[in-house]
Amino acid sequence: MARGECDKGPRIQASLRAVGQESRTPPYAGVEGPVVGVMRTIAIASGKGGVGKTNIAVNLALSLSQRGKRVLLLDADLGLANVDIVLGLTCRKTLHDVVAGKERLADVVVNINERFQVLPASSGVLEMERLAPEQRMSLAQELRSLAAPYDVLLIDTAAGMTENVMFFTRMADDVLLVATPEPTAITDTYAMIKVLRTRHDVQSIALLVNQVVTAAQGAEVHQTLNRVLQQFFGIQLTYAGYLFRDGALQHAVRERRPVVTSRPQALVSSSFRTLAAHFDQLFRSPPRTLDADFWSALSRENLTPIDRAPLSQPPPS
C-alpha cells in the first residue's frame, strides 16, 4: 500500500469521491519548483476538550478542497489522535514513526482526494505528548519542506495549553480558537487567548463558536469574550462565526464519515461551507512558514519553557 499506508472502508471511499477522485500519485507530483511563502498555516485550537475541534478541522479541510484549495491537515494531537477516526482511516504509518526515525514525513502523507492530504498521528503513545524541543523543531522543519504545493496547512492541535500546543500555535500564521456556549468552555477560551497573546505574542486569533442553537447565541459568546479582552488587554477578537448543533454530525461521527460529504444537505454542512467561503477574508496574516527569519525566531522561542504563572485578570462572567 503506497504512501501513508492507510485503509479506507468502502463507505468512506464513496463519501470522499464527492470531492474528487483519490490520487494514486504523490501529492501534486506535477508541481514544478517551490512556491515560496504561499502556504497559509492555521492552527485550530481550544482551551477545553470536547468542543468539536477535530470534526471542524476535517470538515473545514474538505470544504476548502471543494472550493479548489490544496489542503494539508496535520493531526497535532500527537498522543490522542482522532483525525483518522473521523475520516474512517486505519493507518499503518503515523507521525510516531517519523519522530522515531523510521519514516520521513513525506512517507506518511495520506491522500484523501486530489486536493486534500492528511498527516496522521498516533493514539495512546505517551512519549508523543512529551516531545523534546529539538523533536518539535525537527518535525516542523520537515513540514516546511512539504509546504510548497499546498495553499493551506491546517493544524489540529490538542486541547489546552501544553508545550506541544503552544509550539504549534506559535508556528501558525493564524489561530482559530473553538469554543461552545458552555461557561467552562468560554472561561478556558479566555485563558487561552490571554496566554497566546500576552505571553507568546500570537497576534491573529479568531473565534469559532460550535454547537449553537441560534446565530444569536454564537454572537453572544463572542461579545462576552471580546468585551473582557478589550477591557483588560485591548485585544479585538475576530469573530469567525458559528456552527449549529446538528444531530447529523453525531451520526456521521458514529459512521466514521465526514458530515460535509456524507450529509451535504445538513445544516452543519452548510455552516462549514460558509466558513470555507469566508476563509480568505478571515485569515489575512502574511504567510511566515517559509521565512528563514521566522524559523530562527521560533527555534529560539522553542527552547524557552512555557510560563505557567497564574492568570492575573478575572475570566468573563
Description:
By secondary structure, this protein is an alpha/beta fold. It has a single domain, classed as Rossmann fold. It has 13 helices and 10 strands. The protein has an 8-stranded mixed sheet, sandwiched between helices. A two-stranded antiparallel ribbon has the order 1-4. The chain is globular.
The proportion of residues in beta strands is: 15-25%
End-to-end gap: 53 Å
Helical residues, percent: 25-40%
Tally of individual helices: 13
Per CATH, the architecture is 3-Layer(aba) Sandwich
CATH topology annotation: Rossmann fold
What form results from the Cα inertia axes? globular
- The low-confidence runs, each spanning 5 or more residues with pLDDT under 50, are 18-37, 305-312
Domain count: the total is 1
Strand tally, please?
A: 10
Q: State mean pLDDT (0 to 100 scale).
A: 83
